[in-house]
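Q: I'm writing up a methods section and want to include an example of the input and output format. Could you take the sequence below and give the corresponding predicted structure tokens, formatted cleanly so I can copy it straight into the document?
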Amino acid sequence: MSKRIPNTYVLLFLIIILIGIMSYIIPSGSFDRYIDSETGISYVVPDSYEQMPKSYLSVFKIFESIPEGMMQAGNIIIFVLIAGGSFGIIQSTGTINRIIENIVVRYGGKEKKIIPLVMIIFSLAGAVFGTAEEALPFYPMFISLSLALGFDRLTGVAMVLLGTGSGFVAGFLNPFTTGIAQNISQLPLFSGMYFRIIAYIVFVSTSIIFVYRYANKVKSEKIDSDENYEFEEEFNFDNLSSLNSKHVRVTIVILLFFIFLLVGVIKYNFYITEISTTFLMMGIISGLVGGFNSGRIVSEFIKGASNQVYGALIIGLAKSVMVVMEYGQIMDTVIYALSKVISGVGPIMGSIGMFISQTLINLFVTSGSGQAAVTMPIMKTLADFSGVSRQTAVLAFQFGDGFTNVLSPTSGYFMAALAIGGISWRKWTKWMMPLFIIWVIEGCILLVISSIIGYGPF
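A: Here is the clean output for your methods example:
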């Protein structure tokens, strides 16, 4: 992996430099915004775009976007480190090793059944909770499970990444994308769920089939999956026995805290701070019931957190792409130009145009909630002009925001997942591109259908 470590950082750095250069060419401009006093979300005022005096970025300012991006992504970075540290404690108790060994024994000879099971679980997390960065601590566990079952690292990463990603795209109960977009569009919260559930089934089924077929080829050695990457989190499955009382206690703690987390997210609107706190408590208590003293708990926490540093910093670097666009005041100009392209066309082409526009915008505004707040005030007006239902406009936003999350080098959690698995972006893109094309075709078909049936309300 050491030979590939610079690639991701260099790629994102070059994108930042390119955006900085583009700020000299693209006109500076801005929309008026207002802040909703109840939600605290900043909304764009439609038809308020105005060009501004050109904002030229100095070399220092371009470099400044990197620490600024790190700071703006600080809550996600801290979450990843805390969750990684907590799982480091849990892993050191040997509980995860034993659980995985039992799964290996149970599914011996029928290993591929684990793929749909894992992907469905993570897809529901993506569809209901908007799980993305939150899944990062799970990658080492499922990569190791994949290796133990005779697959490869790419299969392990794909189970989690494409599971959460395909569910996130549909987002039938995702408050951070669907909820915000529908609220801005003045639609009833989570209305039109039936169509989104259909989209969920389509995307998740396609993803499972794609991963399953690849894993089957790896298992039968029809393809060469020798990646030659070092991976520090591989488990030793030799001489492991069944769960003892210590492992049972740790397992109970994990289950109780995940139930607590589930209730907190659904009923009490837990977000990054509360979720981070839950993971921290889960790790410490797991260490205590696992028989560790305070020094051992701290040591294992630091070790687990250090394994996540590489991926955590990538999240901040990806955020810097958006920051440099804000510095150059060109983000609103890009959004305005895209909105002008799709105004005044028919419903079918309008919905497809919105999808393409949202896809391009997501390369720079990688936050789903942030993209909804920035674009939906404009898109809902364009939808009205083009005869596109606002519900379809929200659907186009979801597809545009979701598909590229598992392909774009500016997607922080995606690049972090690849880093954890020791998979290069180039290798993943080559492997993922057929599925991405299928997703896009499926998304366009669903948008055409939604336009024909007048998917509503309004």
